[in-house]
Amino acid sequence: MPAEPSVSPSRVGVWLIGARGSVATTAVAGCAAVTAGLHPPTGMVTETGVFHEAGLPALSSLVFGGHDVVDCPLPKRAESLAAGGVLPHDLPSAVTAELAAADREIRIGGPLRGDTRSEEELVDDLARDIRDFVRRSGLARAVVVNVASTEPVPEGDALPASSLYAAAALRAGCPYVNFTPSMGLHHPRLASAAASSGLPYAGRDGKTGQTLLRSVLGPMFAQRALAVRAWSGTNLLGGGDGAALADPAAAAAKNAGKERVLADTLGTVPEGETHIDDVPSLGDWKTAWDHIAFDGFLGTRMVLQTTWQGCDSSLAAPLILDLARLVARAHEVGLSGPVGELGFYFKDPVGEGPAALGEQYADLVALAGRLRQLAQPPGSVEPRAERGDPEDLPGEDR
């Protein structure tokens, strides 16, 4: 029998649910490009000075695998993204080896059409795939990250696919990140397992565009005592996410997080709705419009209109790498339960925490300080925080 691979304390797995999708492909290709010095780590907060000496795993130490129900190889998927302008045109050929290596670690997920396996059998099979990946690759640990298409809000007691994957992560002993608005660990049937697992987890629904802007503008209106009368929005997007969100039930799950940010930052629910329209010709690109009607001094009526045009995968991929590194480090130092300080990345964060981006960033900086302290050898003195860090970094669990 072949010898078991030795475990490397520096190698960390990133197991992606939806591993052959646009976001996952961009994350894998981007990690390889940054590691090789082909591109700077633009958009990666963990590569800023705030996280210097926080003990995060190096990008070069990340090993990728995952589950998907489609069979398009990652190198081919990357070529398609380059043709659409999502990736630099020469990047797929430059990182073909890394894409192929990740593709070899992708397993068929589930449930598949006509699948007769029970929930227990599905979770067991999915967890076995993850454990085999960790053993085969000699990893110190792995983080499971859900980047699959948005699913409708489930009806009844059965676990939806996202929750089956989340349960498998727990069973495999892996921290879990839900970057989608799908149910995942939020399902009531998983509450006890999540609480007793001793694992850190974070989510849900990555904040990459329209809601990112809302989490800045909402506090601005509240802090300036300007009365927002109505806030309406429209999203145009294509690709797999656009197709998934063409389902009204899936769109409702997505919009709930967008509207919750406004309620939390404004302290009230303004008139207006957010609409999502599938425009297949846009591919991975999206446009978001907001129309904000507000009252100023003496009831003067005014309007702010915003337009956000961005590439969904390019906005999301650096956040996936950030979160994988942060949650892996949290696991390494023994943190467990919802990591509320990661609310900076999400529309609907787990745990308790603020909704305004500035306050969320302050929490993230505090987490960086805790991780730096935990990375210091016993008896050493924590260096003075860099400019922008709080002077007093908390040293106890929050």
UniProtKB/TrEMBL annotation:
Pfam families (UniProt xref): Inos-1-P_synth, NAD_binding_5
Domain called Myo-inositol-1-phosphate synthase GAPDH-like: residue spans: 209-313
InterPro entries per UniProt: Myo-inos-1-P_Synthase, Myo-inos-1-P_Synthase_GAPDH, NAD(P)-bd_dom_sf
Gene Ontology biological process terms, A to Z: inositol biosynthetic process; phospholipid biosynthetic process
UniProt cross-references to SUPFAM superfamilies, sorted A to Z: Glyceraldehyde-3-phosphate dehydrogenase-like, C-terminal domain, NAD(P)-binding Rossmann-fold domains
UniProt record similarity statement: Belongs to the myo-inositol 1-phosphate synthase family.
Ranges of Basic and acidic residues composition bias in the record: 383-398
Spans annotated as Disordered: 375-398
Name under which the protein is recorded: Myo-inositol-1-phosphate synthase GAPDH-like domain-containing protein
Any one GO molecular function term: inositol-3-phosphate synthase activity
